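Record type: ASSEMBLY
Status: queued
Input:
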Amino acid sequence: MVVLTPFPHALFALDLSRPGAPVKWRFVPEADGGAEGLACCDTINAGPVIADGKVYFNSLDGHTIALDVATGTMVWNVRTASLDRGETLTGAPLIADGKIFIGNSGDDFGARGWIAALDAQSGHELWRRFSTGPDDNVGIGPGFQPFYAHDHGQNLGAASWPPSGWQHGGGSVSGTILFDPVLHLLFHGTGHPAPWNPDQHDGDNKWTSGLFARDPEDGMAKWFDQIDPHDLFALGSAEPGLAIDRDWHGAARHLLIHPDPDGYVYVLDRANGQVLSAAPFTTVNATRGVDLATGELRRDSNRASRFGTMTRDVCPGWPGATAAHSAPSADGRLLFIPVSRLCMDMEARNVSYIEGTAFVGANVRAKSPADGLRGALVAWDIEAAKPVWTVPEPFPLAGGVLALGGVVFYGTLDGWFKAVDAESGRTLWQFHAASGIIGDPIAYRGPDGRPYVAVLAGLGGSFGMVAKSSIDKRDATAANGLANALQDLPEPSDPSGTLYAFGLP
Amino acid sequence: MTRRLLILAGLLALAACKREQREVRLDPPALDALDQVALMPNGIGGAPPDVLPALGRPYETNAYQLSQGKRLYGWFNCTGCHANGGGNVGPALMEGWWRYGPDVQSIFASIRDGRPHGMPAFKDKLTTEQIWQLAGYVQTIGTYAAKTAAPTRNDEMQSRPSESRGPAGADIAPPSR
Amino acid sequence: MSVAPEEPEVLDRRLDAAALDRRLDAVWQTPRGLWAALATVDHKIIGRRYIATAFVFLALGGLLAVAMRLQLARPEARVMSADRYNQVFTMHGANMMFLFAVPVMEAMAVYLVPLMVGTRNIAFPRLNAFSYWMYVAGGIVLWGAFVFDMGPDIGWFAYVPLSGPQYAPGKRADIWAQMITFTEVSALAVAVELVVTIFKQRAPGMSLDRIPLFVWSMLVTSFLIIIAMPAIMVASTSLILDRLIGTHFFNPAEGGDVLLWQHLFWFFGHPEVYIIFLPAVGMVSTLVVTFSRRPVFGYLGLVLAVISTGILAFGLWVHHMFVTGLPRLGESFFTGSSMAIAIPSGVQIFCWLATLWSGRPVLKVPLLFVYAFLFTFVMGGMTGVMVASVPFDTQVHDTYFVVAHFHYVLVGGAVFPLMGAVYYWFPKITGRLMSERVGRWVAGLVFVGFNLTFFPMHLLGLAGMPRRVYTYPAEMQWGSVNLFISLSALVLASGFLLFFWDAFRSLRHGIPAGDNPWDAPTLEWATSSPPPSYNFARLPVVSSAYPLWDERDALSVATGLRPDRREVLVSSVADARPEARESSPRNSIWPLWTAIATSIMLVWSIFTPWAVVWGSIPIATALIGWFWPKGVPEDDA
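Status: finished
Output:
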């Protein structure tokens, strides 16, 4: 098992065949400490990936590194992101077709989002496509066929912005990148536009807060669906969701099930980008549903944020209604969504782009919703587009979900690792870890043939930052306003990270 | 007795003088001299420029300079990483615990030269006087003792008690759930 | 209180003039010495002090104006820095409005109203003393701050957000706000005293339709003060709370409103100018009557005009806010009301003109000032109707046109009558006349100087010169007009200097005036100049509005008050039928202690909110001392 720590990174290889899983090798790349000043949401990482005897990972300071998994020697180390432009790397690479696909982070630092492909053997960059800018930067060409009319046009990635606004426009590709071997397409989401102050990014802000389908060979876009044009609340749509092939209302279709931070579960036909359904999985007051004819959100103008005014009790708040990975049930009927029910007050302020500093432009205060339950695990019926059961949680769910054989595993911010029944949501088992859990649980079959579930415990990330010793919760706007809503988040008894592995019967 | 009272009143008045003066622009030689902070080799602590006491330490005691610091704190995106003193990407400034020392010249050096682990250097983005204004203001965010000259609230969202109430020592709940 | 059956010897019926004078003086006098001077509650002594202090503030404010004109005489002048200039114009406005204009009118009323209504002392005499000490304290706080570079620099009406915690660092704006508290407490106190005196302490027979017009003006003014002042106290208190403890009255982000300040301030601010103007109207009525040598034409009309001006004054305030983006329909209403208030003013002017026309005018200095007032105030009123129109005001708001307008109405409408009133009542207050010859020079210099100074400001304003700018570039072509204005301001200043010089000189060397040098009809001229400590040996009884004209040989008087303790006569509101004898407090040092305790609390509360808690203790102690029975005969009634 290979485990990656937060920045400054250390990569451990654990030998599972020996009792106690001792460390087989350890790799510590050189780290540029300056990257910590560009980490909007703590110095976390989505983890390494292994393929063809190599392990690949991204480091916060902008390097993509390949090591030999048996020995830990470095195969190649390429600098792919530029700290000078506010770019950092927090996502996990995707390996497919002999290529490594990576995307950057840095919306909050005015970095332009991009997705790049590297050659898996050598690390050479094959192509790079941006989320804003002229069509040739973005990869819009003759093969681009968006489903909706408002995504057609020339150079929309520059025209739907104020002059030169796209150059620091955000739209990072910080979430998972999906590869569909059936349609031979890549799917990814783009983050929110920069800055948060919506009056500083007039226009629809293509191609942020939306979903792309791209050709993995050259990165040219096949379709794009803008989930949240002119994103008012810095929600973004960075996580694309899950690609599932199943029946949809009688016909077999290639679907992309996308639970979005704006609070709706979108079901799209991933062949052409059509939105088949969009239904809310949690309380939403900033918008009033999605118009399926045009694919656009219907906004509530009372809740629009504007420069110099305070917009109160916007739900969902900027962390989004879901900020972690969902998991499907084995039969593809249900989707288990980790939910954050936090709302926020937002006051947009003017901001200038200053290199190396945050490009945000908002005073934000996150708040609990009226009923005080800040998180939930929702089991969502995909076809019926409504929840089957909901397990309320006192804290927002920051970590991902694992669905395995009728049991759903997830971890909470206050350190509980739980297993609930997939049909009813009844808690079957829980374990209190030494620290809060923000990572995804994984399942594997050990060398002894037994199934195991493992999870990393270590409080951090956007939500967990609030419990860091360097954050003072007395300022309501600390940690982007989360200090206001998470005053009671317990500081972990052990501030370091711990790996837990549980054997299943 | 009357003379002593008069002297006391005079001193108080002079103190008030200093707090309320509005020095909008220093002479260039004074500005150059303000840049001469003698830092220790490890970059933590050191001696302030000689000219600072001669000017009356305005960046820590003058209400106008502190309010300018507060304005610059917002204008130069300090809030993006440090929030209103609570921290975010960067550490909290209102705890009253200073990683590189509590004195104003260390804070000045942090802003001017940057620090490892991500504090950018502002020497090419701000004038020396502006960096001193910011440093003096940042000190008041993490002060235990309430200062009359420190700024009070801005006309924007409220996040914590104002700098004039000694926020580092404040025992407070957040403004709203 | 009921009139207890007294032995006849105790009352003043049988005493002859000399004995009565001796016994009354023993009871009512303020002895010599510092302690007695601090403890006096004699309205004439307090009134004299009040007037003198107000004129000191006038002189100081005038010096500030000269300083401003020196700075503006040439483009890009360096006479003073921008920060100093901000303090100077704020101080000029705040000083003139809060420390001169309202207090001097109050002061004249404090001195004259009890004499004019025929009573021995003003109602609540200790409150009167307290009011003076608070006024002086407020002036010292404001001017002391200015001397120490802490003077407020936010304009005399201190709009938020400029005066709020974000944009006004330090304590300067708090000094302004607390000065408001001092002066408003002081003004409210005098207003209350005047209302009670005028309603309840009038000479027998002085029914409501026989009250002198100056007293009517002061009555209406006092009601204006009582209703308008609380608005600014709320505003200034909210400002202090916002600045000191971080409330959000004026913070839009947390639910407050910036325009709230303007509404609260101008709800006070517009009646404020009528608080300044209506007493001057009363003075003009008095002067016109005396110097036309005939009863006023349209007494009822004049009284109703004063009352309706007072009522309408509360319906105009939004005309100061025409450029804030309020709904047009609302603004139009205030255009209408702002123009409508010219109607009662017009009634008054025509009544005065008719009186002068049909009388036999005596062209003495006070009447010269009345003529100056008529010309200047009417000019100011005309520009007032101009700025009442929203489109015009949008063009000239915050330019020198508005400066010209309000100086015309304030100086023309208040200062000229005041100067005439000073010439008129100086002999009564001091016993000596001011110089007629010098007075003509003063009137001429001030009138010419004023018009030469302020008329060109209309043109400057139309040419676009904004208010409150410490300098202007030469390219704007405003330099020559500004230089002309500054030189004319020196002429105006010389007129005032001559006025002060004449006043000082006449104190010692003026021609002794008799009881009634102007042959005036009102009651204050029925006693000696200056009046004795007890005002009238026996209280007059009136049967007309012009008692000294209608009973030339001998004035009817009332007897029945005790000469061995301080007593005043309380009469009914409408017909002034005697109702009771009320005792009047003796000299007391407690108002001074209370004023000191209050001043300490108010100044301390600029720095910490706990001052309100701890500072209340000395105030409570002082109030207990104030009200504790002293064991003197006056305690019984």
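Annotation: Chain C has one domain: 35-517+525-539+549-636.
Annotation: The longest helix of chain C spans residues 82-117.
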